[in-house]
């Protein structure tokens, strides 16, 4: 692209470094900012730099937090004996939105993925094993995405903790509520039949 | 969305004010920045604020520029007698990329659009009429998009300048180079037949 302004070119280059944003989209976003009052750009820049410089990672669950311990870990209302193991903070938000889980979380920060060079040492697995070792955890719920990497990570953690007295479970896989059976993939449909639940139990959810 | 961090929530809200970026995409972008070194966020924020605070609008053509007059208006190589009228800076960049135009530009800053509340007084039309009045312009090329708003804007400007001694032209509409005729819309195909050009002329382009 042939920019008439070095400042514009520089801004477009920086914005287009964000994932999924190409040069054209970056230019559209930057030109939008130029049409808005100057304060808008100031607010945006301050929000991003303040977040990047001041945000903390919860010492206990590795969730993003403004304080040393996150709100969930600090809450006296949560059941500290059940820990839900998730990949990243978006999963915490998704599960919190359901309002169906009252335990604590443990954010791994990713999944084991040899292709991307992510091994167990790059994830928060040691601190999870220590929590289990301490005996204060009764149940671990694996809520990683159902991919090879997710399954590998689940299995790796399972092997580390199976010698301790802790129940492990994984979230149910099945047909989405409201989905037509004919459009479901075979593996999901198959699992939903193998792992069928008593009808009386389905009435409670 | 239920954020565990006010800083994160604030950053996501600011990013999602950009056009075409929803909360989920904003969260994805912000989490990406958190995984990158702190400097990346700093570069991005600085590039945006510097642009917003320091960028200038060329006094002559209203293009975005780092200086009082933009590079194109300053260039001694450009033909100052031909002015291409465009909607915004992206059109300037698109035409410059073709390397087929050696005149100057005039950026209107939009199109007349009563629905969006944009009238002639909101656009840089007066300064264009003054340029024509001064007698230094021989030809105006209308290069606005071919919509009702674009046609209205073209016609409004045409009415303002028709009493002066200036040639007006509009960019050719027709089938895109490389496109199949069968997929072209009727209006474009119709116009391309009405405005056909001598075959010998097509060999030169």
Secondary-structure map:
2 copies of one chain form a homodimer.
Chain A: H1 6-15, H2 23-35, H3 38-54, E1 56-57, E2 64-65, H4 71-74, E3 79-86, H5 89-98, E4 103-107, H6 126-133, E5 139-142, H7 148-161, E6 167-170, H8 186-194, H9 199-202
Parallel strand pairs in A: 3-4, 3-5, 5-6
Antiparallel strand pairs in A: 1-2
Helix pairs in contact in A: 1-2
Verbal overview:
2 copies of one chain form a homodimer. The first copy, chain A, is of the alpha/beta class. Chain A folds into 2 domains: 6-54, Helicase, Ruva Protein, domain 3 (Orthogonal Bundle); 68-202, Dna Topoisomerase Vi A Subunit, Chain: A, domain 2. In chain A, 43% of the residues lie in helices and 12% in strands. Chain A has 9 helices and 6 strands; from the N terminus they run αααββαβαβαβαβαα. In chain A, the strands form 2 sheets. Chain A has a 4-stranded parallel beta sheet. In chain A, strands 1-2 form a two-stranded antiparallel ribbon. In chain A, strand 1 and strand 2 (64-65) form a beta hairpin. In chain A, helix 1 (6-15) crosses helix 2 (23-35). Chain A is globular and about 65 Å long.
């Amino acid at each position: 692209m042939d920019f008439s302004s070095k400042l514009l070119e520089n801004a477009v280059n920086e914005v287009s470094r964000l994932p999924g944003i190409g040069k054209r989209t970056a230019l559209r976003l930057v030109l939008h900012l130029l049409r808005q009052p100057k304060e808008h750009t100031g607010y945006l820049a301050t929000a991003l730099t303040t977040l990047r410089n001041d945000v903390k990672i919860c010492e206990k669950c590795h969730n993003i937090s403004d304080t040393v311990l996150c709100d969930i870990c600090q809450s006296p209302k949560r059941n500290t004996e059940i820990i839900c193991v998730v990949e990243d903070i978006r999963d915490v938000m998704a599960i919190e939105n359901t309002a169906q889980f009252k335990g604590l979380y443990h954010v791994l920060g990713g999944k084991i993925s040899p292709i991307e060079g992510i091994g167990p040492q790059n994830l928060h697995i040691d601190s999870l094993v220590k929590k289990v070792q301490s005996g204060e955890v009764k149940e671990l719920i694996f809520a990683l995405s159902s991919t090879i990497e997710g399954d590998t990570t689940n299995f790796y953690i399972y092997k580390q903790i199976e010698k301790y007295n802790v129940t492990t479970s994984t979230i149910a896989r099945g047909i989405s509520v409201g989905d037509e059976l004919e459009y479901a993939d075979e593996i999901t449909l198959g699992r939903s039949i193998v792992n069928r639940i008593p009808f009386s139990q389905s009435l409670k959810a």
